[in-house]
Amino acid sequence: MIDLGISKLALIGAVALVVIGPEKLPRVARTVGTLLGKAQRYVADVKAEVNRSMELEELKKMKDSVESAARDVQTSVESGASDFEKSWSEATAGLNEPLREPGEADAYGQPVFPVYKHPKKNFRLKQKAVPQWFKSRAGIRTRTQSGAARVARFRPRPSSKS
Q: What segment(s) does the record annotate as region Disordered (predicted)?
């Protein structure tokens, strides 16, 4: 870059004072400062654009690498799935016997009957066994209220003017 020392700047200022004159020098200095500021902003914008494009290229490369890794995982999963299906079919080969009718005899001559299962999980366990004192302390509502009643309850009361 250009090496500008104090002596060179003083020489440029003296020449500008002689050539331009003392009346127009402040206006020219402001114009030159404005142009230098615009040039610096333009250079900064160009640098930012170059950085963005470099980051975009890096992101594209990263995206390509992630997509290739995903394809590799997908092929390995598909091959593993076929191996799993093969081993599963081998393991369950003897389990495809037809079911017996109720009352038929098993291998020992004993009749086979279906076992009764209650439809609920455990009917001896009490459902919703939360004590009332806990509900009131925790702020759990125990009574329902309609929407209109709730609005009426929380509506501000009109103040009476005396």
A: 65-85, 138-162
Between the CA of residue 132 and those of 41, 45, 124, 128, 141, what are the distances in Å? 71, 68, 21, 11, 10
Q: Is residue 82 part of a domain?
A: no
Average of pLDDT values for 118-124?
A: 63
In a domain, 103, yes or no: no
Per-residue pLDDT reduced to its tens digit, 13-54: 888 888 888 888 889 889 989 999 999 999 999 999 999 999
* Residue 141 clears pLDDT 80, i.e. is over it: no
Q: Which residues pair with 117 in a beta bridge?
A: none
| Cα–Cα nearest to 25, from 35, 11, 40, 13 | 13
Q: What is the mean pLDDT of the chain?
A: 81
Domain membership of residue 36 as a residue range: 7-72
